[in-house]
Amino acid sequence: MIPLPDPTRRQFLATLSALLGASAFGAIDTKGAGKTIFLKSGWDTVNIGDIGHTPGTLHILEQHLPDARVIVWLASVSPEVKAMLVRRFPKAEFLIGYLDEQNPRGETLRGGFARADVCIFNSGMGFDAAFFEYCRKIGKPYGMYGQSFFPNFLQGKDAAKKIDLLSGAAFVFCRETHTLQTLRDGGIKAPVLEFGPDGCFGIDVRDDERGLATMKKLGLEERKFITLQLRTQTAKHEGKDGGPLNPLNPTPQQIADDERRAGIYRELITLWVQKTGHKVLISPEVKKEMIHNKRLIYDPLPPEIQRNVVNLETFWNADEAASVFARAHTVVCHEPHSPIIALANGTPIMHTFSEFHSPKCWMFKDIGLEEWLPEFDSTPAAKMADILFQIDADYPAALAKVRKAMAYVHERQAATMRVVQKVIEA
Prior knowledge:
- The chain folds into two domains: 30-203 and 409-425, 3-Deoxy-D-manno-octulosonic-acid transferase, N-terminal domain (Rossmann fold), CATH 3.40.50.11720; 208-407, 3-Layer(aba) Sandwich (Rossmann fold), CATH 3.40.50.2000.
- It is built from 16 helices and twelve strands.
- Helix 2 (48-64) links the parallel strand 1 and strand 2 (69-74).
- The longest helix is centred in the last third of the chain and has 31 residues, at 395-425.
- Helices cover 46% and strands 12% of the residues.
- The chain has helices spanning 6-20, 48-64, 79-88, 104-115, 129-138, 159-167, 177-185, 208-218, 252-276, 289-298, 303-306, 318-325, 337-344, 363-366, 381-393, 395-425, and strands at 36-41, 69-74, 93-95, 118-121, 142-147, 171-174, 193-195, 225-229, 279-282, 309-311, 330-333, 349-351.
C-alpha cells in the first residue's frame, strides 16, 4: 500500500473522525502521536492529595494529548494505589527506582528518560535538582506542572542553582499566583512561567462501590452531610521527624495551636448539627490525622452532637474519597487536596487554611473561591458557620459557583497542554 501524503492523510483522518463521531477518548486524534511524556509523580501514599496528583495529571494529558505515550516515575507507590492507576490508565507505563541505582530497575528508569520527548515534574512542594540536571545531561526538555514554593525558596546557598535550573525549563506552571510572583521576583527566566492549576484538579478516578458502601455503613445521605479534617503539627510517618510542619516531638505551642483549632472545629460541628440536623464525617486527607481527629475533635464532643458525627476508622484511597466527596454537601478541610477532589466532583468546599503550611492555599482564591477560604486562626467558628449556612441557603448557587471555578481550571489546563504539545512537537 502506498502511504498517503501528509495533507491527504490528515483530510482522511478528519473525515473519518467526523463520520465516527468525536469524543475525548474515541476520536481519531493525532495530538502527541508518536511522542512520549515522562512524568515524575506519586510523592506519597499516606495522603490522598499526594496520591491524587498522579491520576489527575494523567487525565489532563489523556484529554489533551490522547495519542502521546506516558511513562510515570512513581516516587512512592502501594499495591492499592498502583492497582487504581493501572485500572484507570492501562496504556501508561509505571516505573519506580532511583537514578543512581546500578541495577536493572535503575536502568529501566534511565531508559524511560531516554525515550522521553519532555520530562515533567508533577504538582507539589518539591524541587529535585537531580531530576532537572539529569534531563540537561541527556538533552531532554523539562518542565514543572502546578508547583508551589515557600517565599524563601530562592534564598540561601542553592539559590543560584535553582534559578539556573528553573530558567532552563521549557515551562514552569505555578499552582497559585503567590509562587508565580516569587519566581518572577527571583529572576526566573523560563520561556513559559504562568499559573497552572494543581494536577489533582484533573482527577476523575472513582470507586463508587466502596464509596456507597461506606456511606451506607455510616448512615450518610447524599448531600446531607459535610466532611471535615484538621491538620495537626505531628509526624507524618510513624517514628520519623518530618521537620517543622510534621515534627516527631511537637512544641508546647504547636500542641496548644492544634488543640485550639480543634476547638474551633468542634464548635463548627455543633453549630452545623444544631441548625441542620445533618451529619458530619471526619474524613482523612492524611492517614496520620485519623487518630488526632478522633482524640481532638470526635471524642470531646457532647453525646447529643456526637450522635451525628462519624470518625472514619480506615484510611481510604483517593478514588473512594472522590466518590464520597461527590455526594457530600460541603467538604471542609484544613488541608487543600480534599477540597480539590471535591471541586473536581462538583461539590462546594471550605478550605480553612493556615498559610504557614505553604502558599498553596491561595490557589482557591486564584480560581474565584475566596469567599470559601477563611484563615483558620483569625476566623471564629461562628463566621465559618456563616459560610456553610450561606452555601446551604442557596445550594444551587453554590453548585454553580463550583462549575464556574472548574470551568476556569479547565481553561487553564487546556492552555498548559498547548504548551506541552509545542514542546514535544518542537
